[in-house]
């Protein structure tokens, strides 16, 4: 049975700053279940990108690297997103009746903050809770919770063809205190939030007639003492978990890249990339 493009859906979950070795050591039953039906693989941050959130998330979104999308750090001004649009924009352009969804506590992904948004359609960013201080870890945790719950509502009750949901607590803990027990706890919290998103998808009344692809990805690692931006293996080793009817686990052996996500999203919907886009990656299926 072929499921029509309008009944196909993609959820990309971005979890910032999660070391691969820390992920493997943490208790993450929801990620493990996804990996069993698809794959988990380390992702080397391409040498054209620094191990910094802005450039790498821009590669996830656009399918090209810093030399072309023009994002060099977390100030996005000077970007070339009009020439290299994000995958949500490309899905909407190719499928005019399709809707998309995005949510993130880090403003530049979904709002005009710092020259954003990376995802041109914009999206939900939770406001700071009353009396909270920006950057305080409890505040960040509350904002991630708001992102996860708003996203779960969208996945259950709305009908986004493609969605990008982003969680930032792990990276903020890494910056605050390094790769500690609390860093691992934050990874486990993200896994629980992923579980809520997957439960929302499973509970859709029309789920049996739908095809869903889920990709969970981080942008970079952290040094032991916290922080990133350098070229150590701890910083350059990211990872990806992907599952769905068009995901071929054998691609984990050929090696997967941040730039593969954009072409995979297009591939799900049968959108043929224009050769002029010169996407850097390949769909996550056998050639
Ligand atoms: Zn980051």
Would you kindly provide a written description of the structure presented here, covering whatever features stand out?
- The protein is of the alpha/beta class and 287 residues long.
- Helix content is 37%, strand content 14%.
- The chain has 11 helices and 6 strands.
- A 6-stranded mixed beta sheet has the order 2-6-5-1-4-3, with helices on both faces.
- It starts with 7 loop residues before the first strand and ends in a 19-residue tail after the last helix.
- The structure holds zinc ion.
- The site of zinc ion has 6 residues, from loops.
Observed structural traits:
14% strand; globular; 287 residues; alpha/beta; 6-stranded mixed sheet; 11 helices
In short:
By secondary structure, this protein is an alpha/beta fold.
């Amino acid at each position: 049975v072929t499921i029509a493009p309008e009944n196909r859906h993609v959820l990309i979950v971005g979890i910032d700053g999660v070391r691969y070795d820390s992920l493997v050591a943490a208790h993450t039953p929801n990620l493990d279940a996804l990996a069993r039906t698809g794959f988990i693989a380390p992702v080397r941050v391409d040498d054209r990108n620094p191990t910094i959130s802005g450039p790498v998330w821009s590669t996830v979104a656009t399918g090209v690297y810093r030399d072309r999308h023009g994002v060099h750090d977390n100030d996005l001004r000077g970007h070339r997103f009009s020439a290299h649009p994000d995958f949500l924009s490309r899905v909407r352009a190719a499928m005019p009746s399709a809707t998309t969804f995005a949510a993130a506590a880090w403003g530049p992904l979904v709002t005009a903050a710092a020259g954003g948004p990376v995802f041109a359609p914009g999206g939900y960013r939770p406001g700071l809770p009353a009396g909270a201080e920006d950057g305080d870890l409890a505040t960040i945790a509350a904002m991630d919770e708001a992102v996860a719950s708003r996203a779960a509502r969208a996945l259950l009750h709305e009908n986004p063809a493609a969605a990008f949901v982003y969680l930032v607590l792990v990276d903020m803990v890494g910056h605050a205190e390094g790769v500690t027990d609390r860093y691992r706890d934050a990874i486990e919290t993200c896994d629980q939030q992923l579980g809520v998103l997957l439960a929302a998808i499973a509970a859709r009344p029309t789920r049996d007639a739908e095809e869903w692809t889920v990709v969970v990805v981080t942008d970079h690692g952290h040094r032991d003492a916290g922080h990133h931006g350098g070229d150590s293996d701890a910083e350059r080793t990211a990872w990806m978990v992907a599952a769905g009817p068009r995901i071929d686990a054998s691609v984990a052996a050929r090696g997967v890249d941040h730039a593969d996500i954009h072409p995979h999203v297009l591939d799900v919907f049968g959108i043929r990339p224009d050769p002029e886009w010169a996407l850097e990656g390949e769909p996550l299926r056998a050639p």
